[in-house]
Specification:
0% of the residues lie in helices and 46% in strands. It is an all-beta fold. It has a single domain (19-89), classed as Rieske [2Fe-2S] iron-sulphur domain (Rieske Iron-sulfur Protein). It binds FE2/S2 (inorganic) cluster. Residues 43, 45-48, 62, 64-67 line the site of FE2/S2 (inorganic) cluster.
Length: 101
Amino acid sequence: MALVKVKPLEELSPGELTEIKVGDGTYVVCNVDGNLYCLTGTCPHAGGPLGQGSCMAGVLVCPWHGWEFDCRTGVSDSSKGDKLDTFPVILEDGIILIDVQ
Ligand code: FES
């Protein structure tokens, strides 16, 4: 397991999200009412940057065309059954870490 440091929890308030690049991958971490979720950061529709979208009421919204994804499961509202990959998030000494490798 290779953990990657994201940022201190105090810099990611409930309702906020942040984008992080790891190698060739881009990921997004959402704070939903104090629970943290990590998902693929690239939209399956047309490659939109999900980390530059919004996170409201547990829903991640793509900034390009508005597709919506459940922050907890990665499941989208599209009829095609698109789903973002999800990754473990660990909080260690107030620092958000993700396991994406
Ligand atoms: S690229 Fe995300 S909704 Fe189109």
